[in-house]
Design goal:
six-stranded antiparallel sheet
């Protein structure tokens, strides 16, 4: 079994994640000046470590997202060993950090997404697609290619494809990729901004549209909360600069941030925290608790549901990550690459703009957040009251292989001996689909 995201040379044929021991997990060197004199929330620390225009990982590593010069001819490979050798050679030649599934399986991965859109889109209005975090533009080009070749001409001629990309360097790569087909150019544009910032969206879009997010949720900022034992109240984790300014450490405060408190309520983290068994256990064997909160996901979906109330959503991401050593539920991997070799930090505070920070996605929680942001799941309503008014979204989570078998052409990614990396590997990824219903009140 392979795992998605980082199929680098030293992680073939299996992902082997090595952790670097850190003497004090709450105290770390930090070479940039992202943390100022005042403490910042963990989500702001992570956002800066990834997206800071000067020090951020995606700003410095414009080629961190690999781009294949040509599609892999899977049908010409003998089997799994040949495929792994092919990947190993690609990484040796490119020395980039990682290839996304949509890149490894181009154009077939994007074609499957386009097939799902064409099967269910409302064509009484012009087709409009938003892609959040479009990477190298491979998905956009693949989808537009497919629609150009397989949909009625009026659908392609009237369509609009908008990429919302926070990285200026990646935005330029996207324009180059899509621009390889001249007829795509007037239909495609990149808006270089943060999709979670409401001010960048302008007026509410009342027409049906599609939103695509491939490997986006894993890189969204998360918050961290901490509790001294099984029944102690949760506390926010902040990052502060130590004396001298060369090191940072954690600081704990009572819950007060509105985004964090909403996320805690949605997740029901305080449910049953005061049971007698937990009280006894906390005294006999006190155990600190850490929980990573997808506050970046919550913020993004709140904005999307506000500005695109009739959107249909397709998102793909990691359902779990192997060998995570950072503490806490839904903890991230912090991976860097130096001299052609990947290694993983044992502490998120080690990220200095040279490391990718990515999280697993709890798809049941994603669905709950989606329902909350759509206005159906109210925190002050019980389940019976919510069910009477009807859900505002129809949602489904599929294994990647199931999605590809339903909407794609799996024969295109099959090797001579029947091995199919798109179906047989990437067991830690799932695809989430969410569409509006007619139960709107």
């Amino acid at each position: 079994m392979l795992f998605a995201r980082t199929l680098t040379r030293n992680k073939l044929p299996l992902i082997l994640l090595t952790s670097r021991a850190i003497p004090n997990p709450g105290f770390s060197l930090y070479s940039t000046h992202i943390v100022g004199e005042k403490p910042i929330l963990v989500r702001d620390f992570i956002h800066s470590a990834l997206y800071h225009p000067l020090h951020g990982y995606f700003s410095q590593k414009s080629r961190s997202v690999g781009v294949l010069k040509k599609s892999i001819k899977f049908n010409q490979l003998e089997g799994r060993k040949a495929y792994m050798r092919y990947l190993d050679n690609i990484y040796k030649q490119s020395d980039i950090s990682w290839f996304t599934p949509v890149e490894l399986f181009k154009p077939w991965y994007a074609h499957a997404i386009a097939g799902a859109i064409l099967r269910t889109a409302n064509f009484s209005v012009p087709l409009k697609i938003y892609e959040i975090g479009g990477g190298s533009g491979t998905c956009a080009k693949g989808i537009m290619d497919y629609i150009m070749l397989n949909a009625p001409a009026r659908i392609y001629n009237s369509m609009t494809y908008i990429s919302v990309e926070i990285s200026p360097s990646l935005a330029e790569i996207q324009r180059e990729t899509v621009g390889e087909v001249r007829s795509h150019i007037p239909k495609f544009r990149v808006e270089c901004r943060d999709a979670a910032d409401r001010s960048g969206w302008g007026d509410v879009e009342q027409q049906p549209c599609w939103v695509i997010m491939l490997e986006v949720l894993d890189n969204l900022p998360h918050d961290l909360i901490y509790s001294e034992n099984q029944v102690s109240p949760w506390m926010e984790v902040w990052v502060k600069r130590q004396h001298g300014g060369e090191t940072v450490s954690e600081l704990y405060k009572p819950l007060q941030d509105s985004l964090i408190t909403r996320c805690v309520e949605i997740m029901d983290l305080d449910e049953m925290n005061t049971t007698m068994a937990k009280r006894i256990l906390s005294k006999v064997y006190p155990k600190p608790r850490q929980s990573w909160l997808p506050t970046g996901c919550l913020k993004l979906l709140e904005v999307l549901h506000e500005v695109l109330p009739k959107m249909s959503l397709i998102g793909s991401d990691f359902s779990y990550l192997p060998d995570v050593t950072i503490a806490g539920e839904r903890a991230p991997l912090v991976s860097t690459k130096k001299d052609g070799r990947s290694s993983d930090y044992g502490n998120y505070l080690e990220a200095k703009g040279d490391a990718d920070i990515f999280f697993p996605t709890d798809f049941l929680l994603l669905e709950r957040i989606d329902h909350y942001c759509s206005g159906w799941l109210k925190l002050d309503n019980n389940k019976n009251e919510s069910s009477k008014i009807g859900k505002k979204r129809r949602t489904i989570t599929l294994e990647t292989s199931s999605f590809m078998e339903e909407f794609g052409t799996p024969s295109r990614t099959r090797t001579k001996d029947g091995y199919n990396p798109l179906l047989d590997d990437f067991k830690n990824t799932k695809i989430y689909i969410s569409v509006p219903t007619h139960n709107i009140k």
